[in-house]
Amino acid sequence: MGYFVYILRTSSNTLYIGQTNNLEKRIQEHQTKSVKSSKYIRYFNSIELVYSESYSTRKEAMQREILLKKWSKAKKEAIITGNMVKLGAKALRKTPPKEGELAQIKRNPIYLVLDRIIDTYNIGSLFRLADAAAIKKMYLCGEMEYPPSSRIHKAAVGTEEWVPWKKEDSTLELVLKLKAKGIQIIVVEQDPQATSYKLLSSKIHFPCAIVVGNETTGIDKKILKQADIIVELPMFGVNKSFNVWGSAAVVTYKIIEELR
């Protein structure tokens, strides 16, 4: 047995949200204004079913119903029309994508490659970055944690369910595969051959892949040799290096500038 959350539009253009285990029967009850219909619905000349979602349990349907009822009308209209709804951190943690929603996201021709990232907070933050930048796909390579993970989920605020990702055994093998497909490899690392992020605009071509590495050992030299571009951020203080997700964010948005 399935359960449904639905949205009705009334003749006065208001929206009504409900949940049921028999959608067809419930809509008929509303339309005929039977004693089982909502008292609110009976005040209107007509109603139209404009949106529905299905769930496997009543608990899930009830939780979604409660959430949708808290949304503004503009957000409700957005899901009715199929536009992407922007979710806050609290909603993201409890709202996995429904079937077809991921396909609605227009993604940028940028890949994000994580090479043996240790800290789950960094991994989660990189998922959050990948979602914010509409990354085409993220790769988690080598020995590192990956979803499902409560610690990653906490830092990612649920975005790990909205970002296409794949676990890979070897960063080097993945980089070689991406290069063979004509994807430009941009490695974020401190290196004598590195260029400033400010000069990226003259060197980028799409699609491209941004590779970020282990917080302690950095990027392996074999991977550096495969890089089309090595980029680093200037450090003006006493700290020698910047956080991995922070560096990735700066470089990612610098690259996105070339798409706009």
Report what the structure shows.
With 260 residues, the protein is an alpha/beta fold. The chain folds into 2 domains: 3-86, GIY-YIG endonuclease, CATH 3.40.1440; 106-259, SPOUT methyltransferase, trefoil knot domain (Alpha/beta knot, 3-Layer(aba) Sandwich), CATH 3.40.1280.10. It has 9 helices and 10 strands. It has helices at 23-32, 58-70, 73-81, 89-94, 120-132, 150-156, 171-180, 221-224, 244-256; strands at 3-10, 15-20, 47-55, 108-115, 135-141, 165-168, 184-188, 195-196, 208-213, 229-232. The strands form 2 sheets. It has a 7-stranded parallel sheet. Strands 2-1-3 form a 3-stranded antiparallel sheet, with helices on both faces. It is elongated and about 75 Å long. The model has no long low-confidence stretch (mean pLDDT 91).
Strand order of the largest sheet: 6-5-4-9-7-10-8
Largest sheet: 7 strands, parallel
Q: Roughly how many Å is the radius of gyration? A: 23 Å
What's the architecture of the largest domain, going by CATH? Answer: 3-Layer(aba) Sandwich
The CATH class of the largest domain = Alpha Beta
CATH topology of the largest domain: Alpha/beta knot
